[in-house]
Specification:
This protein has four helices and four strands; from the N terminus they run ααβαβαββ.
């Protein structure tokens, strides 16, 4: 579509029961495959986290689309969301992330992220 339809969220008519439910955890995995996902996933997550104690656990393949990853982290930040990589207690630390765009073929790895509404935005 044209730029005007991409910058305005589509009103799909959210189910009122879904809208009213207080979720403890929302889970997702590898949900971003294009620029629309980069833009709208953080906004959808923020919508369901607002004024709630909910957190979003998101399994993401890091470095599959490095530029998209960078844009996604920026969008999460601009939407007032904190992103923290988590792992099971006692699990070894994952390898540190290379500086963006410094490796031609960075090694992909799965990261589990806990995404929460930034404290000042609750």
């Amino acid at each position: 579509g044209d730029e005007s339809t991409r910058s305005t969220p589509r009103s799909a008519g959210v189910n009122p029961r879904l809208e009213a439910t207080e979720w403890d955890v929302i889970v997702g995995s590898d949900l971003v495959y294009d620029d629309d996902g980069v833009r709208y996933l953080p906004r959808a997550v923020r919508h369901f986290l607002r004024k709630r104690r909910t957190h979003f656990l998101y399994a993401h393949t890091k470095y599959r689309y490095e530029l998209r990853d960078m844009a996604l982290w920026r969008e999460f930040d601009e939407c007032g969301l904190d992103v923290e990589e988590v792992r099971e207690d006692g699990a070894p630390s994952p390898p540190s992330s290379p500086e963006p765009l410094t490796q031609l073929f960075p090694e992909k790895r799965i990261a589990v992220l806990r995404i929460t509404l930034r404290e000042e935005d609750k």
